[in-house]
Task: structure prediction
Amino acid sequence: MCLNQRQVAVRDRRRASSAPGARVLHSLAPPQPDGGSWQPRLFTTDESASIDSVSEVLIPQTDTPWARAASVCQYIDWVVSRTAEEDPADPLPRVMRDGLVWLDLHNRTLFDGQFVDTGSA
Result:
């Protein structure tokens, strides 16, 4: 059986997601101040959806926690928002946003849609 590049990448990411560090992300993202449902601190709803889709591709559902179960999107939003609060000159928030814009533009060119719509297919 010959695997294409995407299948090989998914297989390799599944192996990596079984590492002990992949299991602790959920506990690292802080709860919402009001105890309600999660709302992004820095990213827009669309940006958060793209981050969620990217993380789902990188950490797929297997017998170990996957990106959504581990709240990877919430953790990324929390880390990047703290970076922006602590050092407004830090380029990380802009780099993240620019990367999400590039991802969507590139995906529109290749697949005629946003990554959030086609990335985890």
